[in-house]
């Protein structure tokens, strides 16, 4: 069983697809899997991310010049 968890990683406005591709390659190269790309209202991707890659992304997000807008758990949304 994989210890990877599902997250949505979003990027700040103006971030190029080439910059985002580097993060996608990190996920795929570390045993994770990107399963959806977003390029509309939000820019980013949904992926199964290994713990060590997630930690690296979270550390990068904390920097003042980070291009990462947010990292949120992916899951179902229900409206009543």
Automatic annotation (TrEMBL):
Transmembrane segments: none annotated. SUPFAM superfamilies: Protease propeptides/inhibitors. It comes from the Eukaryota. One of its GO terms (molecular function) is endopeptidase inhibitor activity. InterPro entries: PBI_I9, S8pro/Inhibitor_I9, S8pro/Inhibitor_I9_sf. Belongs to the protease inhibitor I9 family. This is Inhibitor I9 domain-containing protein. It comes from Dendrothele bispora (strain CBS 962.96).
């Amino acid at each position: 069983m994989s210890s990877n968890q599902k997250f949505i990683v979003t990027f700040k406005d103006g971030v190029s697809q080439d910059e985002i591709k580097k993060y996608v390659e990190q996920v795929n190269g570390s045993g994770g899997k990107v399963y959806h790309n977003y390029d509309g209202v939000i820019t980013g991707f949904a992926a199964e991310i290994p713990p060590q890659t997630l930690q690296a992304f979270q550390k990068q997000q904390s920097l003042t010049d980070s291009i990462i807008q947010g990292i949120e758990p992916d899951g179902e949304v229900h409206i009543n």
